[in-house]
Amino acid sequence: MSKRTFRVWRGAGEGALTEYEVEVNEGEVVLDVLHRLQATQTPDLAVRWNCKAGKCGSCSVEINGRPRLSCMTRMSVFEEDEVVTVTPMHTFPVIRDLVCDVSYNYQKAREIPSFTPDPATSPGDFRMKQVDVERSQEFRKCIECFLCNNVCHVIRDHEENKEHFSGPRYLMRVAELEMHPYDTEDRRKAADEDFGMGYCNITKCCTEVCPENIHITDNALIPLKERVADRKYDPLVWLGSKIGRRPKDTPIAPNTRRPTEGA
Amino acid sequence: MTSTDSTRPGGGRVRIPQRTLRTDQWWLGPVLTTLGLAAFLVYGAVRVFQQDHYWVQEHHYLTPFYSPCLAQQCAPDAALFGRLPFEFPFFLPYAFVSLPILLLFRVTCYYYRKAYYRSIWQAPTACAVREPHRAYTGETRPLMLPQNGHRYFFYAAFAISLINTWDMAVPFFHGTDGGFGLGVGNLVMLANVVLLWGYTLSCHSCRHVFGGRLRSFGRRPVRYWLWSRVSVLNNRHMWFGWLSIASLMITDAYIALVASGTITDLRIIN
């Protein structure tokens, strides 16, 4: 057992970092220490958590400036005398202390046209090869911790981009559907114009912070960028669109986005 | 307990005055990247505009910075596709066709984009480090649209890699006494070509073209196999990127030293 110094964000947007001296035991993670703070010094500390196993995605925070799951960050990764600073996710509004309002993510999720199989097919008709299953299963490992959307500088540093950028989490969802063998929709135009694919400059922070080690950039975002380029910048497609073979673009899901003011 | 940091009132997002709370050496990667890219660009510019020491007649070594050699001043045996009927001025590289393509292939490369967006453009400098720009439009503006043409530079770079492979193969048949020969120069050029192919074939656009664009792998097993092989290379794209620019400089420097008579090519066979 040892005493460690924690600096924890208290309050909402106009809060402050507050310093605590707290006991830490061998084998503990940051979430354990936050719970000890709740139990011994500050019972009103708001922390969102659930499974304590890195599978629910609830306890996303920033620890010493790095977006992480607090339940998966071992205290042993810090030096003995290192001050541990815990702040809420930077990109989303703070409700209180370490708890954020992540409804932006749910809004963006609703805008994506869902899986649309051929209407002529019935449940039980699909036969997928394992290689096709594995391709999208990587993306299904996502635990919706929103660390990727939190770290993405497009919205982290530019609040104004939230309106037209869905973040890596939901561009990955679009990519997943675009790669589904039985999906019949074409979301490439929407990916470019409504979900903001062009804003991504593939700096890979989303991949770096993903606790599930999903290769978001290499396996979802870049392939989606290439698919958008197929549709928009391929001369043959352009020629086809001029002589009648227009791509059947799927718009974003209806009634999911408020009309912009003045529109 | 004591309150240590005060912040502006306002609500909403957390307001932290520091650029980042990261305590690790997040600045080191961008600094090394900038130095690496600057070293390559400076070296490349010096050599390309030097217009000398690019060809070893005895063993037919041609540096990749001058291939294919197109100027009237090129050594006749160095000009794979013949020579243009006029002398190139000092500002026009002898390989003026291939160099811009290769440069643009790297400029539009998904790995190098990450590298220079972070280290030079600082958008962002590192993850969870506030970027210095007031506004951000990513790759949506007309100036950035050529980034979407990476695949076309890949096609052209593929063709140039074939030329580099030819340049590497020819010296094997120009030993000291004629016929087959093997020297350190051959091995340096061979390693360079292997790394250039590694970089070219591990490209994300190559991965897309070979199979990534498919909706179903199950129905196209050959393309799936190709895609999976390219994917293995693609995992190492960053390493191929750096190793290939290092090998380009080493190959060029070696040939320049031999061509200028500073060193003698060490022969292993003939």
Can you describe what's shown?
The complex is a heterodimer of chains A (263) and B (270). Chain A contains ten helices and seven strands. Chain A is of the alpha+beta class and 263 residues long. Chain B has 270 residues and is mostly helical. Chain B contains eight helices and five strands. Chain B has helices at 28-50, 98-107, 110-119, 150-169, 184-201, 204-212, 221-234, 237-259; strands spanning 2-5, 55-56, 61-62, 182-183, 267-269. In chain B, a hairpin with a 4-residue loop joins strand 2 and strand 3. In chain B, helix 1 packs across helix 3, helix 4 (150-169) packs antiparallel against helix 5 (184-201) and helix 5 packs antiparallel against helix 8 (237-259). The longest helix of chain B is centred in the N-terminal third of the chain and has 23 residues, at 28-50. The model of chain B is unreliable at 1-10 (pLDDT under 50). The chains are: A alpha+beta (263), B mainly alpha (270). At the A-B interface, strand 2, helix 3, helix 5, helix 8 and helix 9 of A face strand 1, helix 3 and helix 6 of B. Strand 2 of chain A pairs antiparallel with strand 1 of chain B.
